[in-house]
Amino acid sequence: MTNTFIKSYWKSILFTLLLFYLSFAKPASFKDINVMNLTDKWAHYLVYVAYGMVIIFDFIKRNTLQYKKTHFVIYCIIFPIVLGGLIEIVQEMFFKPRSAEWIDWLCDILGILSAWLLMNFAVKHFKSVAKLL
Question: Taking Cα atoms as reference points, which of 118, 106, 8 lies closest to residue 53?
Fold first, then answer.
């Protein structure tokens, strides 16, 4: 069962590990803090859009037959949102000089919700995407 799970969700697992690396690696120093803050928020948003799309793609592809909407919401929406919040807390507690920022987590949440909207739109309007799933 573990091998089946890993084979089905290898992209999501790999992206999660990449997310951990990016979240806990030493932050690069930037000369212009204001630009860094704006760039950081966009990075959070875009990384979580990509993360959400990968998780949703893996979930739908694995569950091509009927799946419960509650499972989809838990795995594809709630899990990455909670993970983003936990990462912020762990950064604050164990990875100084990183800090927990509510706005970072908000950008993560907006990224996940945007991924859901994009994937929903793509599946409904593009037959080629539906065939991939």
Answer: 118
Which pTM was predicted? 0.82
Q: DSSP 3-state helix, strand, coil percentages of the chain (rounded to 5)?
A: 80, 0, 20
Tens digit of pLDDT for each residue in 31-55?
Answer: 444 445 668 889 999 999 999 999 9
Give the residue among 79, 14, 108 at the shortest CA–CA distance from 100: 108
Instruction: Say how far apart CA 68 and CA 46 lie, in whole Å.
Output: 28
Q: Are the beta carbons of 77 and 112 closer than 8 angstroms?
A: yes
CB-based contact 112:81 (threshold 8 Å): yes
For the chain, the domains span: 2-23+31-132
Q: Average of pLDDT values for 86-115?
A: 91
Please report the sign of the dihedral spanned by the C-alpha atoms of residue 86, residue 92, residue 98, residue 101.
positive
Output the DSSP codes for 81-98: HHHHHHHHHHHHHHSTT-
- Mean per-residue pLDDT of the chain: 83
